[in-house]
Amino acid sequence: MSALVEVEGLTKHFPVGTVLWGSPKRVVHAVDDVTLDIRPGETLGLVGETGSGKSTLGRTILHLNAPTAGVVRYRGEDVGGFDRAAMQRFRSRAQIVFQDPYSSFDPRMTIQDIIAEGMVHGEHRTRAARAARVGALLRTVGLGQVYPDGYPHQFSGGQRQRIGIARALAVDPEFIVLDEPVSALDVSVQSQVLNLLADLRGQFGLTYLFISHDLSVVRHLCTRVAVMYLGQIVELADTRALFAAPRHPYTAVLLAALPIADPRQRNRPRQVLQGEVPSPINPPPGCRFHTRCPRATALCREQEPKLVGDAVHSVACHHA
Amino acid sequence: MARPVLEVRDLRVALHTRRGVIHAVDGVSLHIGPGETLALVGESGCGKTMTALSVIGLIPRPPGLIERGQVLLNGDDLVPKSDEEMRKLRGDRLGMVFQEPMTSLDPVFTIGTQLVETLLAHRDISRADARAQAVAMLKRVQIPEADRRMDNYPHEMSGGMRQRVMIAMALLCRPDLLIADEPTTALDVTTQAQILELLRELRGEFGMAVLLITHALGVVAEMADRVAVMYAGRVVETASVEDVFENPRHPYTRGLLGSIPDLAEGGSRLVTIPGTVPNLLHKPPGCCFWPRCPIAEARCREGEPPLVELVPGHQAACWKAAA
Description:
By secondary structure, chain A is of the alpha/beta class. Chain A is 31% helix and 22% strand.
């Protein structure tokens, strides 16, 4: 199976404390040498804690951030080498939905205009054609009743997230990066949006990169999962395999940290990870997790483990 | 049964907005015994934070007004107390931890100053003693190098560390009641696990009553002894934590539990509650939940169901649960 998106050695560093000339003294290693494939039709989950670089990776894959190093290939073509026209085509194939659609909408635009903004090409040249298409999209995302001349503030969080999804669908994409799309929603509304995302995936044959800090949501929706820690992928596996037998100690700790919605299991022994995520400005040498890892040895402090394994399960740990 | 530390009786809080009066808390009754943890659960806007703010006397006035009801702390009604009297209680008998510690800590003072001032405000002790007690409490909440950390400003600490400082500040005077409003919502899972573990230990050690406000049912299952589920300003179900998870009687509680993407089974469709929470300005007549309820019938639109005891300790406000 050939990949829809191939990411190779992708790196994104942000300078901190920029100076007028010369190179900045310090850089944030937001994403460091990430290699992965996104297969057509799959939903790849990208999990990690705050500051792990998962959102930056999502944006850099779409070239919304220019990569510091590395390559993103879409259907085999290097996105970095696209000219203006090719980039415009890529932008309609690959879309993004943000956590808080409110801050990604212009508050003075109507819902109609927000959704139709990307549709200036192709068969939706006339205003009437665009209005008809917006009506159809709103029905698709379960907002058939809403008034398309309304403004974003008139809608609830769940409705705004549906509008954000409709906007992404407006250009007939194949691939959507979903950046924490349900994190800001109440549980009852969260489940509605998760069901909608699953339906749309089937209906339009979409491929998702689903970024989330919530492992239970990821388990529910994703076919494969990549776990990030300090800018690197530490484990990449089929969802079932990852949750059944996590091989990286960090993944194991993340799973163990999840509260379980069953009061009878509250007295289970818990493995609580000590300490905090180190600064991405000066990541630890060797394995980046060694400062908090219960299994770390001298080797881990010196040598960086590579992500190795097969198509089902790979892990970056000397002791996996 | 021992006398409850906190007893809320028929509390009704009105908010006067430009578009009309809404009752954010509408006839809520709760009780928490010594050493007990009650979780107040519900979605945004259901009134759980307003209930907590009423207990600690921090309802903004205007627009808020406690129209009726009592808030009894060890039998003493807090509602008629003056701001000055409430200020003395907060930080002393009443400890508080909020979701975002950055907004509860003062950014221009070191955390040491803030801890010491809290103690000096409530206790007749010397500054040196206060400092020693503050350092001891920081150590107790597992802040490394507590002595040095006293000189840090809040922005120099991570979110998890700041939440530990908030907990230390809340517990300095050994309160009878700790109110924890979404204490781990802004934290990552591994940090959340650390803070929950800490709260569990401290709860046992200090023997205080805890009012835990959260929308996260996983946290409820880990922490609570009893649960009160709120919807549109009312308690719609209350029971022991086991009963709520294993035998929920209100359709809203069942919907909430069904919406959790269960770790045990991926891939299936989630149960959803159609629609969204009602606008409190235009409360539906009858049961507030009927427009979203899968089992609603005619009488649900007409009369509001009272909270009735179905079995000892388990109450629900639903016509069909009572039947």
